[in-house]
Amino acid sequence: MTLNTRILALVDPSQKKQQALARTRFNAERRGEKPHLTVFMAVDHEVHKHVKTPPILSRDSKWMTETMSRLTDVGLEYDLSFSWAEEWADAVLAEIKRSKPDQVLVPVYEDEDGNRVLTDETWKLLRSSKVNISLIHPRKDDREQRDVILAGIKTQDPAFDERTKRTIAQAKALSKIYGAEVHYVNAYQDSAKFPDRAKMLKMTGVPNSNIHVVAGPISGVLPKVSRKVKADILMIAPMRKQGVIGTLRGSTISRIIGKVQSDVMAIV
After folding, report:
1. Do residues 264 and 226 lie in contact, with contact meaning Cβ atoms separated by under 8 Å?
2. Cβ atoms within 10 A of the Cβ of 170, count?
3. Whole-structure pTM value
4. Distance (Å, whole) CA 49 – CA 62
5. Is 36 exposed, middle or buried (0-12, 13-18, 19+ CB in 10 A)?
6. How many CB atoms lie within 10 A of CB 157?
7. Staple 3 to which of 22, 163, 173, 230, CB 3.0 to 4.6 Å?
8. Count of alpha carbons within 13 Å of 179, Cβ hemisphere only?
9. Which of 105, 220, 209, 102 is nearest to 152 (CA)?
10. Are 105 and 26 in contact (CB under 8 A)?
11. Per DSSP, what are the bridge partners of residue 9?
């Protein structure tokens, strides 16, 4: 599987760190090939209500040159797009439609208490996007290498078969970029539908020790196993909702993302 040959990386000019750009550069260097890259600059104003800092709505050419140098220094070419819309998610969705990326890298920021800030606009993007979304969590050590990938799958329900296949394929492809170890977790609540470990081993190709079958709701199981294996990336394939409710915060995915400190990739 070819992973993410077209990338959309989001930049908030109000922030000091641009982890989506840093991740794009690191991944490109590890892959040894250059993706088709679009850099999208926009401000999610709701973020600043949480982090209690006013948005910076102007930047000079020096800032632009210094910011984009992390790409140009390694020979990465990019298209540059700007948005002034307050409807941040709608602007990103319009850019997705225009540039047709395989994946969108969304930087996540923290408030003064160290809690990750996920705005209503972020949730709207997660619910509405038709391409994979990666939430890039800030790391205090600025370390870009990811050593452990944890992917949530569900093998006991045929309704999830396609999602499980896509998640496994994405996990395998991403592990090649980082040289990372992959773990898979399958939560269950009905003992009559106990996941078939042999089936999971055959599907994933990982050692038995990297398969985790755990009783309990997925909202509690995924964060627990993520901490246990010290995952750097958590991959999930949530069921999508339609209509107005699709723009709202999903209770299950909200609890999962709120309890982990790793990057999160939402597989569509």
Report:
1. no
2. 21
3. 0.88
4. 27
5. middle
6. 12
7. 173
8. 5
9. 220
10. no
11. 39, 105
